[in-house]
Design a protein that fits this description.
single chain, alpha/beta, TIM Barrel, 2 domains, 7-stranded parallel sheet, 4-stranded antiparallel sheet, 13 strands, about 40% helix
Length: about 375
């Protein structure tokens, strides 16, 4: 019997049999990728990643970002403001209150960070109200997406900002590293507030519609592993993780709680698993991650990703080799969503993406 997208996703994260794998073969698309594909037969009206997901037959989901890679969950966000023009670049205050330098033409790139909103406890207190779980409208703003998940048999995918990412948004990477050593009491105060905030927000959401998954965005690893030691993860993250994940999966009955981090997360998987995390992604190949090894080592965690996005730009032979390396083995086991290990970059032709998509679906 054919499953609905919600049933298929829920069975996947619970490591149960499915009628077919949950289709989400591309983790996402750069805006420049879609712009390129418009010259390669992608209809012009498909001008947004969400439209591209539907157009390519991905399984639908309703998606809510309370926080994530863009901000730590501030509500309201800071008002963006251009402060200065420097040749081909703009200096601006972004939605997180940070001062950044970006391309004036809007080209996709990691900004150059010049300053951050928090340096000490006074700075924390100046932004703390933006992380008030009782802020009027915090959940209401997403009512159309909640209603969509009530009306359609789709999973509700919710993103929040993890502890490491919250520290990073507030202090910046360098400032966070100093603060973890010099201001441990402040960092625990922030983490305790993080815990209270997200327990309250997701409880409020569950009163309207329980999500199938809550994702904790972290991006806390690089090619050589985590940016802080496992000992610091144990001290500054795991006590709060265990309580939050236990609350989500236990009291609220949410099927999956995931962590999204780029880079090599191998060293942290035991800690994530020990805290109750039961879904991990995206397993960047260029950082040394091998999703097939993770499956062998961790057979009871749902996984997504692990197909090298770089291979998609290297021609059909490279695509076939990469897909055959990952997909047949992973689909022998329950609990895997085949996908690229990050957004599809603009050096991938539309023809080669379609070849990749159809090749994976043929194996599924």
């Amino acid at each position: 019997m054919e499953m609905t997208p919600r049933e298929r996703f829920t069975a996947t994260v619970r490591l149960e049999p499915v009628d077919r794998y949950y289709r989400w073969e591309g983790m996402g698309f750069w805006p420049e990728t879609i712009a390129r594909w418009h010259g390669e037969c992608l209809p012009a009206e498909i001008n947004d990643p969400a439209f591209a997901y539907f157009y390519h037959g991905f399984d639908p989901q309703s998606h809510i970002d309370f926080g994530s890679w863009q901000h730590p969950g501030f509500f309201p966000l800071f008002e963006e403001e251009v402060l200065e023009r420097r040749g081909a670049h703009l200096v601006k205050r972004d939605m997180t209150g940070s001062i950044i330098e970006v391309h004036a033409d809007g080209a996709s790139a990691i900004p150059r960070y010049l300053d951050f909103p928090v340096k000490d406890r006074a700075g924390w207190l100046s932004v703390k109200d933006r992380l008030d779980p009782a802020s009027a409208g915090r959940v209401d703003q997403f009512q159309p997406f909640i209603q969509l998940a009530l009306d359609q048999p789709w999973p509700l995918f919710v993103r929040i900002t993890g502890i490491f990412a919250t520290y990073r948004f507030l202090f910046g990477v360098e400032g966070m590293m100093y603060a973890l050593c010099d201001r441990p009491e402040l960092m625990h105060e922030i983490a305790a507030h993080w815990l209270v905030m997200w327990k309250s927000v997701i409880r409020q959401l569950c009163e309207r519609r329980r999500p199938e998954i809550v994702d904790l965005h972290e991006d806390m690893c690089g090619k050589n592993g985590p940016m802080i030691s496992p000992a610091m993860v144990d001290e500054f993250m795991m006590p709060y993780y265990r309580e939050l994940v236990g609350f989500f999966r236990g009291e609220l009955g949410i099927p999956a709680v995931s962590v999204d981090t780029d880079g090599d997360m191998t060293m942290l998987i035991p800690q994530f698993a020990g805290a109750g995390i039961n879904f991990l992604w995206p397993f960047e190949v260029q950082a040394g991650m091998d999703v097939t090894k993770v499956r062998r080592d961790w057979p009871r965690i749902a996984l997504m990703g692990g197909i090298d996005k770089i291979a998609l730009a290297q021609g059909k032979d490279a695509i076939r080799k990469e897909v055959e390396r990952v997909v047949p083995f992973m689909l022998e086991h329950c609990g895997y969503i085949p996908s690229t290990d990050h957004n599809v970059p603009p050096d991938v032709s539309y023809e080669d993406f379609l070849f990749f998509r159809d090749l994976v679906r043929g194996m599924g």
